[in-house]
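In response to the reviewer comment on reproducibility (Comment 2.3), we provide here a single inverse folding case reported in full, input and output, so that an independent group could reproduce the run without further information from us. The structure tokens appear first.
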């Protein structure tokens, strides 16, 4: 594999060579649940217990995060959140183990970083690390006010990855997401509600834009519509609680583990996470 270049000024990174073809994936006879999310907690909050059930049923799990979830605070904060999401997956799978890190370059030329548990190659978490776009899509000064919603709306031509400053156009991003979808052969693909849907009302701009990007990319890749699932974001708090019992307990424990690595999220116990402003109540819901 080809490691990405170090950080540099926007536009400075040269196009890296694609990585050698990876070895054939492990057999996924029970199916593959793939999720493509905006930030390092969207899957835990909005697409769980779907992921918990996939792991319990012996499925392959492929998770992709499009942004670095950096909130304009750089890679130190982003990588801490990445550690948190991996530790949360350890809680979901019931094993506290080491993760193997791989630096990949897709056929499109986009660099990505993939983590796989050393003892469970059927689980993979991939980070693309584009800038967090802020709630309303205006971006952050530290990352040049770049955002997915501005890229998708074509008010900017490119974004730059937070870690390698690789320029990423809208077409390149769609093609890259499509490449990851095709490689995963998902039997269920979960993303967030697209921006054009009424269900995206009051949601984070990155959530709705990722939903739109994944929908476009999945259609271009020829994925069957029957495979697609759209997770409701912040708006699900207006619906009845539908995650209870042992599944809620595991969901809360996994999210609580994640919060230990995200200084913005603070809860003293798993149950106390239900009181987090804006989306704590979403932990009791999955729509």
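Designed residues, in position order:
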């Amino acid at each position: 594999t080809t490691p990405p270049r170090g950080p540099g000024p926007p536009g400075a990174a040269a196009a890296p060579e694609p990585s050698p073809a990876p070895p054939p994936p492990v057999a996924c006879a029970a199916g593959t649940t793939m999720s493509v999310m905006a930030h390092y907690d969207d899957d835990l909050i909005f697409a769980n217990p779907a992921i918990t059930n996939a792991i319990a049923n012996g499925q392959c799990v492929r998770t992709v995060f499009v942004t670095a979830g950096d909130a304009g605070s750089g890679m130190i904060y982003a990588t801490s959140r990445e550690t948190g999401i991996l530790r949360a997956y350890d809680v979901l799978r019931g094993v506290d183990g080491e993760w193997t890190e791989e630096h990949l370059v897709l056929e499109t030329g986009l660099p990505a970083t993939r983590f796989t548990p050393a003892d469970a190659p059927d689980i993979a978490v991939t980070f693309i690390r584009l800038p967090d776009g802020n709630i309303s899509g205006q971006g952050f000064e530290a990352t040049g006010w770049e955002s997915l919603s501005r890229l998708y709306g074509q008010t900017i031509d490119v974004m730059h990855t937070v870690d390698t400053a690789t320029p990423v156009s809208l077409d390149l991003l769609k093609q890259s997401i499509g490449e990851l979808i095709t490689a995963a052969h998902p039997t269920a693909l979960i993303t967030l509600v697209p921006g054009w849907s009424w269900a995206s009302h009051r949601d984070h701009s990155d959530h709705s834009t990722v939903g739109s990007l994944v929908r476009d990319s999945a259609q271009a890749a020829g994925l069957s519509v029957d495979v697609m699932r759209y997770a409701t974001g912040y708006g699900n708090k207006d619906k009845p609680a539908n995650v209870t019992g042992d599944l809620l307990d595991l969901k809360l424990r996994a999210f609580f583990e994640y919060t230990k690595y995200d200084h913005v999220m603070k809860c003293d116990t798993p149950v106390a996470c239900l009181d987090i402003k804006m989306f704590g109540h979403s932990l009791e819901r999955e729509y």
